[in-house]
Protein backbone atom coordinates (compact mmCIF):
# COMPACT_ATOMS: atom_id res chain seq x y z
CA UNK A 1 0.00 0.00 0.00
CA UNK A 2 1.40 3.37 -0.94
CA UNK A 3 1.80 5.37 2.27
CA UNK A 4 3.23 8.56 0.79
CA UNK A 5 1.04 11.58 1.56
CA UNK A 6 -0.92 13.04 -1.34
CA UNK A 7 -1.22 16.70 -2.11
CA UNK A 8 -4.72 17.96 -1.49
CA UNK A 9 -7.06 17.89 -4.46
CA UNK A 10 -7.68 21.46 -5.54
CA UNK A 11 -11.08 22.82 -6.54
CA UNK A 12 -12.34 21.95 -10.03
CA UNK A 13 -15.52 24.01 -9.54
CA UNK A 14 -15.03 27.75 -8.90
CA UNK A 15 -15.92 28.86 -5.36
CA UNK A 16 -19.31 30.43 -4.90
CA UNK A 17 -19.52 33.98 -3.58
CA UNK A 18 -22.18 34.63 -0.97
CA UNK A 19 -24.21 37.84 -0.93
CA UNK A 20 -23.90 39.75 2.33
CA UNK A 21 -27.50 38.97 3.25
CA UNK A 22 -26.74 35.25 3.22
CA UNK A 23 -23.26 35.25 4.72
CA UNK A 24 -24.33 35.53 8.36
CA UNK A 25 -27.31 34.04 10.21
CA UNK A 26 -30.18 36.23 11.34
CA UNK A 27 -30.38 36.12 15.12
CA UNK A 28 -33.43 36.05 17.36
CA UNK A 29 -31.93 37.39 20.56
CA UNK A 30 -35.01 37.94 22.72
CA UNK A 31 -35.52 34.31 23.78
CA UNK A 32 -32.05 33.03 22.88
CA UNK A 33 -30.68 32.75 26.46
CA UNK A 34 -33.63 30.64 27.61
CA UNK A 35 -33.47 28.43 24.52
CA UNK A 36 -29.69 28.06 24.85
CA UNK A 37 -29.87 27.07 28.53
CA UNK A 38 -32.62 24.53 27.89
CA UNK A 39 -30.77 22.95 24.95
CA UNK A 40 -27.48 22.77 26.82
CA UNK A 41 -29.15 21.06 29.79
CA UNK A 42 -31.01 18.56 27.62
CA UNK A 43 -28.01 17.79 25.41
CA UNK A 44 -25.79 17.19 28.45
CA UNK A 45 -28.34 14.76 29.88
CA UNK A 46 -28.65 13.09 26.48
CA UNK A 47 -24.88 12.60 26.29
CA UNK A 48 -24.88 10.97 29.73
CA UNK A 49 -27.72 8.65 28.64
CA UNK A 50 -25.69 7.69 25.61
CA UNK A 51 -22.68 6.83 27.78
CA UNK A 52 -24.84 4.62 29.99
CA UNK A 53 -26.27 2.75 26.99
CA UNK A 54 -22.77 2.10 25.64
CA UNK A 55 -21.43 0.93 28.99
CA UNK A 56 -24.36 -1.21 30.08
CA UNK A 57 -25.96 -2.52 26.89
CA UNK A 58 -23.52 -2.42 23.97
CA UNK A 59 -21.42 -5.43 25.14
CA UNK A 60 -24.48 -7.68 24.72
CA UNK A 61 -25.89 -6.24 21.50
CA UNK A 62 -25.43 -7.33 17.89
CA UNK A 63 -23.98 -4.92 15.34
CA UNK A 64 -27.47 -4.30 13.94
CA UNK A 65 -28.84 -3.49 17.40
CA UNK A 66 -25.94 -1.13 18.08
CA UNK A 67 -26.58 0.69 14.82
CA UNK A 68 -30.25 1.10 15.72
CA UNK A 69 -29.32 2.63 19.08
CA UNK A 70 -26.85 4.98 17.38
CA UNK A 71 -29.49 6.02 14.85
CA UNK A 72 -32.16 6.63 17.48
CA UNK A 73 -29.78 8.54 19.76
CA UNK A 74 -28.60 10.72 16.86
CA UNK A 75 -32.16 11.50 15.77
CA UNK A 76 -32.95 12.61 19.31
CA UNK A 77 -29.80 14.76 19.47
CA UNK A 78 -30.87 16.64 16.33
CA UNK A 79 -34.29 17.21 17.88
CA UNK A 80 -32.79 18.49 21.14
CA UNK A 81 -30.53 20.81 19.11
CA UNK A 82 -33.55 22.34 17.37
CA UNK A 83 -32.65 20.91 13.97
CA UNK A 84 -35.08 19.37 11.50
CA UNK A 85 -33.70 16.58 9.31
CA UNK A 86 -34.33 16.31 5.56
CA UNK A 87 -32.90 13.37 3.62
CA UNK A 88 -32.55 13.36 -0.17
CA UNK A 89 -31.29 10.37 -2.14
CA UNK A 90 -30.66 6.88 -0.82
CA UNK A 91 -27.71 5.61 1.20
CA UNK A 92 -26.10 2.44 -0.12
CA UNK A 93 -26.97 -0.79 1.66
CA UNK A 94 -23.73 -2.43 0.60
CA UNK A 95 -20.47 -1.39 2.36
CA UNK A 96 -19.45 2.12 1.35
CA UNK A 97 -16.98 4.85 2.10
CA UNK A 98 -19.16 7.85 2.92
CA UNK A 99 -17.37 11.11 2.08
CA UNK A 100 -19.03 14.38 3.11
CA UNK A 101 -18.30 18.08 3.32
CA UNK A 102 -17.61 19.22 6.88
CA UNK A 103 -19.43 22.16 8.49
CA UNK A 104 -20.27 21.48 12.12
CA UNK A 105 -19.98 19.19 15.14
CA UNK A 106 -23.54 18.23 14.18
CA UNK A 107 -22.42 16.58 10.90
CA UNK A 108 -21.60 13.16 12.33
CA UNK A 109 -24.92 12.92 14.14
CA UNK A 110 -26.87 14.04 11.06
CA UNK A 111 -25.36 11.23 8.99
CA UNK A 112 -25.74 8.68 11.80
CA UNK A 113 -29.41 9.67 12.13
CA UNK A 114 -29.91 8.31 8.60
CA UNK A 115 -27.41 5.45 8.41
CA UNK A 116 -24.80 4.87 11.14
CA UNK A 117 -21.23 4.69 9.90
CA UNK A 118 -17.85 4.24 11.57
CA UNK A 119 -16.25 7.65 11.24
CA UNK A 120 -12.57 8.45 11.06
CA UNK A 121 -11.83 11.19 13.58
CA UNK A 122 -8.84 12.90 15.14
CA UNK A 123 -7.64 11.13 18.29
CA UNK A 124 -8.27 14.23 20.45
CA UNK A 125 -12.02 13.72 20.00
CA UNK A 126 -11.86 10.75 22.36
CA UNK A 127 -10.83 13.13 25.16
CA UNK A 128 -13.65 15.66 24.73
CA UNK A 129 -15.90 16.13 27.79
CA UNK A 130 -19.18 14.18 27.55
CA UNK A 131 -18.65 13.39 23.86
CA UNK A 132 -15.34 11.50 24.27
CA UNK A 133 -16.81 8.30 25.74
CA UNK A 134 -19.42 8.28 22.98
CA UNK A 135 -16.73 8.70 20.31
CA UNK A 136 -14.85 5.69 21.66
CA UNK A 137 -17.92 3.60 22.40
CA UNK A 138 -19.45 3.66 18.91
CA UNK A 139 -16.29 2.32 17.23
CA UNK A 140 -14.83 5.55 15.83
CA UNK A 141 -11.52 5.01 14.03
CA UNK A 142 -9.11 7.41 15.73
CA UNK A 143 -6.14 8.87 13.87
CA UNK A 144 -3.19 10.72 15.37
CA UNK A 145 -2.76 13.41 12.75
CA UNK A 146 0.63 14.59 14.05
CA UNK A 147 2.05 11.13 13.23
CA UNK A 148 2.38 10.84 9.46
CA UNK A 149 2.60 7.03 9.50
CA UNK A 150 -0.57 6.61 11.56
CA UNK A 151 -2.61 7.10 8.41
CA UNK A 152 -1.35 3.71 7.16
CA UNK A 153 -2.73 1.97 10.26
CA UNK A 154 -6.09 3.73 9.90
CA UNK A 155 -6.34 2.89 6.19
CA UNK A 156 -5.88 -0.80 7.07
CA UNK A 157 -8.60 -0.49 9.74
CA UNK A 158 -10.93 1.21 7.26
CA UNK A 159 -10.39 -1.51 4.65
CA UNK A 160 -11.07 -4.21 7.24
CA UNK A 161 -14.29 -2.50 8.32
CA UNK A 162 -15.47 -2.24 4.72
CA UNK A 163 -14.62 -5.90 4.07
CA UNK A 164 -16.63 -6.84 7.17
CA UNK A 165 -19.71 -5.08 5.79
CA UNK A 166 -19.55 -1.78 7.67
CA UNK A 167 -19.94 1.75 6.31
CA UNK A 168 -17.01 4.06 7.02
CA UNK A 169 -17.26 7.85 7.08
CA UNK A 170 -14.64 10.50 6.29
CA UNK A 171 -14.50 14.28 5.94
CA UNK A 172 -11.87 14.68 3.21
CA UNK A 173 -11.41 18.42 3.85
CA UNK A 174 -9.80 17.50 7.17
CA UNK A 175 -11.42 20.46 8.92
CA UNK A 176 -14.66 22.43 8.93
CA UNK A 177 -15.74 25.26 6.64
CA UNK A 178 -18.71 27.63 6.65
CA UNK A 179 -20.78 25.34 4.45
CA UNK A 180 -21.11 27.39 1.26
CA UNK A 181 -17.93 26.13 -0.41
CA UNK A 182 -15.34 23.34 -0.17
CA UNK A 183 -11.75 23.28 0.97
CA UNK A 184 -9.22 21.08 -0.88
CA UNK A 185 -9.74 17.34 -0.36
CA UNK A 186 -7.02 15.07 1.04
CA UNK A 187 -6.67 11.79 -0.85
CA UNK A 188 -4.92 9.39 1.53
CA UNK A 189 -7.99 7.91 3.24
CA UNK A 190 -9.61 7.14 -0.13
CA UNK A 191 -7.00 4.38 -0.47
CA UNK A 192 -9.24 2.14 1.63
CA UNK A 193 -11.76 2.01 -1.22
CA UNK A 194 -9.04 1.18 -3.77
CA UNK A 195 -7.76 -2.00 -2.11
CA UNK A 196 -8.04 -4.87 -4.58
CA UNK A 197 -10.26 -7.11 -2.45
CA UNK A 198 -12.38 -4.29 -1.01
CA UNK A 199 -16.00 -4.32 -2.26
CA UNK A 200 -16.79 -0.72 -1.33
CA UNK A 201 -17.87 2.21 -3.46
CA UNK A 202 -17.52 5.83 -2.39
CA UNK A 203 -20.83 7.59 -1.78
CA UNK A 204 -20.53 11.39 -1.76
CA UNK A 205 -22.80 13.14 0.75
CA UNK A 206 -23.66 16.83 0.77
CA UNK A 207 -24.54 18.49 4.09
CA UNK A 208 -26.47 21.75 3.78
CA UNK A 209 -27.73 23.83 6.71
CA UNK A 210 -30.75 25.96 5.88
CA UNK A 211 -33.40 28.18 7.41
CA UNK A 212 -36.43 25.93 7.94
CA UNK A 213 -38.93 28.46 6.61
CA UNK A 214 -37.16 29.95 3.61
CA UNK A 215 -34.81 27.10 2.68
CA UNK A 216 -31.96 29.61 2.37
CA UNK A 217 -28.42 28.76 3.35
CA UNK A 218 -27.53 29.42 7.01
CA UNK A 219 -24.17 29.71 8.69
CA UNK A 220 -25.64 29.37 12.17
CA UNK A 221 -24.44 25.78 12.72
CA UNK A 222 -20.88 26.30 11.47
CA UNK A 223 -18.02 25.28 13.76
CA UNK A 224 -14.89 26.85 12.30
CA UNK A 225 -11.47 27.80 13.62
CA UNK A 226 -11.41 28.67 17.32
CA UNK A 227 -15.19 28.31 17.65
CA UNK A 228 -16.40 26.29 20.64
CA UNK A 229 -19.34 23.92 20.85
CA UNK A 230 -20.96 26.29 23.34
CA UNK A 231 -20.52 29.20 20.94
CA UNK A 232 -21.95 27.17 18.09
CA UNK A 233 -24.92 26.07 20.20
CA UNK A 234 -25.56 29.68 21.26
CA UNK A 235 -25.62 30.84 17.64
CA UNK A 236 -27.99 28.04 16.69
CA UNK A 237 -30.24 28.95 19.63
CA UNK A 238 -30.28 32.61 18.60
CA UNK A 239 -30.97 31.94 14.91
CA UNK A 240 -34.23 31.17 13.14
CA UNK A 241 -35.21 27.47 13.17
CA UNK A 242 -32.74 25.37 11.15
CA UNK A 243 -32.78 22.16 9.19
CA UNK A 244 -29.94 19.95 8.08
CA UNK A 245 -30.25 18.49 4.60
CA UNK A 246 -28.38 15.23 4.04
CA UNK A 247 -28.12 14.53 0.31
CA UNK A 248 -26.81 11.14 -0.84
CA UNK A 249 -25.29 11.26 -4.34
CA UNK A 250 -24.59 8.49 -6.85
CA UNK A 251 -21.82 6.06 -5.80
CA UNK A 252 -18.41 6.33 -7.42
CA UNK A 253 -15.66 3.90 -8.39
CA UNK A 254 -12.16 4.72 -9.65
CA UNK A 255 -8.88 2.77 -9.92
CA UNK A 256 -6.75 5.25 -7.95
CA UNK A 257 -7.29 7.30 -4.83
CA UNK A 258 -6.39 10.52 -6.64
CA UNK A 259 -9.04 9.93 -9.31
CA UNK A 260 -11.57 8.88 -6.69
CA UNK A 261 -10.86 11.97 -4.59
CA UNK A 262 -11.24 14.31 -7.54
CA UNK A 263 -14.49 12.70 -8.70
CA UNK A 264 -15.90 12.87 -5.18
CA UNK A 265 -14.98 16.51 -4.72
CA UNK A 266 -16.39 17.47 -8.11
CA UNK A 267 -19.71 15.73 -7.35
CA UNK A 268 -20.07 17.37 -3.93
CA UNK A 269 -19.03 20.81 -5.18
CA UNK A 270 -21.45 20.75 -8.13
CA UNK A 271 -24.38 19.68 -5.96
CA UNK A 272 -23.54 22.13 -3.17
CA UNK A 273 -23.22 25.11 -5.48
CA UNK A 274 -26.46 24.24 -7.28
CA UNK A 275 -28.26 23.97 -3.94
CA UNK A 276 -26.85 27.34 -2.90
CA UNK A 277 -27.99 28.96 -6.13
CA UNK A 278 -31.46 27.46 -5.70
CA UNK A 279 -31.72 28.90 -2.18
CA UNK A 280 -31.24 32.53 -3.22
Describe this structure in words.
With 280 residues, the chain is α/β, with parallel strands linked by helices. It has one domain (28-278): Glycerol-3-phosphate (1)-acyltransferase. The protein is 38% helix and 14% strand. It has 8 helices and 7 strands. It has helices at residues 20-23, 32-56, 63-80, 107-112, 131-137, 150-163, 229-238, 257-278, and strands at residues 83-88, 96-100, 118-122, 141-143, 168-170, 201-211, 242-248. Strands 1-7-6-2-5-3-4 form a 7-stranded mixed β-sheet, sandwiched between helices. α5 links the parallel β3 (118-122) and β4 (141-143). The protein is globular and about 55 Å long.
Cα distance, first to last residue?
A: 45 Å
CATH architecture descriptor: 3-Layer(aba) Sandwich
Low-confidence stretches: 18-27
- Shape from CA axes? globular
- Structural class call reads alpha/beta
**Total count of domains:** 1
What is the total tally of β strands? 7
Strand content: 5-15%
List the secondary-structure elements in sequence, H or E.
Answer: HHHEEHEHEHEEHEH
Helical residue percent band: 25-40%
Amino acid sequence: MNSAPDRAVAPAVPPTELPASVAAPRLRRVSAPVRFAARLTRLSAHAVRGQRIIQSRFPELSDAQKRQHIRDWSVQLLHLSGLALQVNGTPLETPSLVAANHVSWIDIFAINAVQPVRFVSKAEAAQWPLIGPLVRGVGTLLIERERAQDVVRVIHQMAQCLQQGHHVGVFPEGTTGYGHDLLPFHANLFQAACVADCPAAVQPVVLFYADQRSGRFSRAASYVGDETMLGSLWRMSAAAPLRIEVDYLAPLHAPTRRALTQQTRDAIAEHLHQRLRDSR
